[in-house]
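Pasting as-is:
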Amino acid sequence: MALFRSSDPEKTVQREIDAATKTHERLSAQIIELEQAITRHAAAAKQAALTGDDAELDRAEAALRAAQDRNTTLKAALTEVDQQLEALERTKAEIADRKVRAETAAEIELLVRELTQVGAEFNSTAARLSDHTARAVPVVFDALGLDKFMAICRAEVPAALELVSKLLRAHADAVVAGTAPAKLPRPAEASVPAPAQPPKEPHFKYSPVKQSLKGLMAR
């Protein structure tokens, strides 16, 4: 039933663009033909005036005025169609942008879920490993560093994951709202700080003070 037929905004707008484009092409072709007709009617009217054929002059002038009036009407219609096409193209771009932003938000949400899942697995593994390192420390003192590291992981990773997830979801909201880029930067595109440049050597050289004084005294 028509009441339950789903509509695709992209396809609807594209159909309207296609229809407006055909109208634009038709009007443009008609205008070209009319401009050629105007030239012919103007030449015929001039020739009738030169020969003194008033009846032919009346017909030529009537045809000329009709062609000029039609040309004006078609040009006005063409201008309106151009404006419609511009509006439709903007709408098409907006729909495409919203689609990309929705896909990006979904991608971020998937990333958050994967972080949460892998983080839970990591925390469970860290807890088990911490139990073993704690047992190893009394036996091997060198295990103390690893045991402390595992304690830090158990204390810091859960909170860090929660913060990252919160920030990711906030970014997803900004993407949907249009205040953040529509697409996510890829790891290869992430900006990396430029390596620090070594200090440049001075353009002058230091000379020992005594040597400089000897040179002055020798002069």
